[in-house]
């Protein structure tokens, strides 16, 4: 397992190493894992400060990712609670219909989405991009399984004390599934941060570009300068590493909780 781990990490290690090198040293063979000549300060200063658009791309990505994550977690948790704990006629049928949409490839609905967003005026806007990823069938299904694990007697006790659905949801149900909420939030953050397809199709203005489009623009503007490209790539994954390091405890706790209740 240790050997396999090193094999899987080797491209990442090479990327970090290349971001510290002179351009002529990047493709040398055999590979210099530790640069003989360090050029990190110049590479990172060129990417971050000489090209102001990179900061714009970074800010756009943070904005879209954070708002999408917050909205998606809120909407998915509400829907999951409704399907798990609120009894209404046709609940199972509606849930199956919602779940069936997960089987539809996203690429098959891109054209209708594109036409609809142009018609309602959400094309080429961050708000439209946020809406696209704010409703997740996977998130609803995942969180529903955790809400089902809450004892119905707890919900009934809250109703007997006069709590409505929203009060029961926010003060009782939500704290009990906090590890699952954290797990889905981390997954949603990573998926949205790495998303390339939706920004490529639904954004046209360069000042609105996210980081994934920005790195492609950066490569076009500077040519195939691998040291700068790797510097941009390393900068792009730093937030993902921070989120994972902070949230890995909740992810493991959520997986363990799901395993016990399953």
From TrEMBL:
InterPro entries: MetI-like (IPR000515), MetI-like_sf (IPR035906). The chain crosses the membrane at residues 64-84, 93-115, 127-147, 168-191, 224-246. Gene3D superfamilies: MetI-like. Residues 58-247 form the ABC transmembrane type-1 domain. This is Sugar ABC transporter ATP-binding protein. Keywords: ATP-binding, Cell membrane, Membrane, Nucleotide-binding, Transmembrane, Transmembrane helix, Transport. One of its GO terms (biological process) is transmembrane transport. GO terms for cellular component: plasma membrane.
């Amino acid at each position: 397992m240790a050997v396999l781990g090193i094999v899987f990490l080797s491209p990442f290690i090479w990327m970090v190493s290349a971001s510290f090198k002179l351009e002529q040293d990047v493709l040398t063979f055999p590979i210099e894992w530790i640069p003989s000549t360090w050029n990190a300060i110049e590479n990172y200063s060129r990417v971050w400060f000489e090209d102001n658009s990179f900061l714009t791309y970074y800010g756009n990505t943070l904005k879209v990712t954070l708002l999408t994550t917050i909205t998606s977690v809120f909407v998915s948790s509400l829907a999951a609670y409704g399907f798990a704990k609120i009894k209404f006629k046709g609940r199972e049928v509606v849930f199956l219909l919602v779940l069936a949409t997960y089987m539809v490839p996203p690429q098959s609905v891109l054209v209708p989405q594109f036409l609809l967003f142009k018609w309602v005026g959400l094309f080429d806007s961050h708000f439209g991009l946020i809406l696209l990823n704010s409703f997740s069938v996977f998130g609803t299904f995942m969180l529903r399984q955790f809400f089902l694990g809450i004892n119905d007697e707890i919900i009934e006790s809250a109703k007997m004390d006069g709590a409505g659905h929203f009060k029961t949801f926010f003060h009782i149900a939500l704290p009990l599934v906090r590890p699952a909420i954290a797990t889905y939030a981390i997954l949603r953050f990573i998926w949205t941060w790495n998303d390339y397809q939706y920004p490529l199709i639904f954004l046209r203005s360069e000042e609105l570009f996210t980081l994934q489009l920005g790195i492609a623009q950066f490569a076009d503007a500077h040519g195939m300068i691998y040291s700068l490209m790797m510097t941009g790539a390393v900068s792009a994954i730093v937030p993902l590493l921070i989120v994972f390091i902070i949230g890995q405890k909740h992810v493991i706790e959520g997986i363990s909780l799901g395993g016990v209740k399953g």
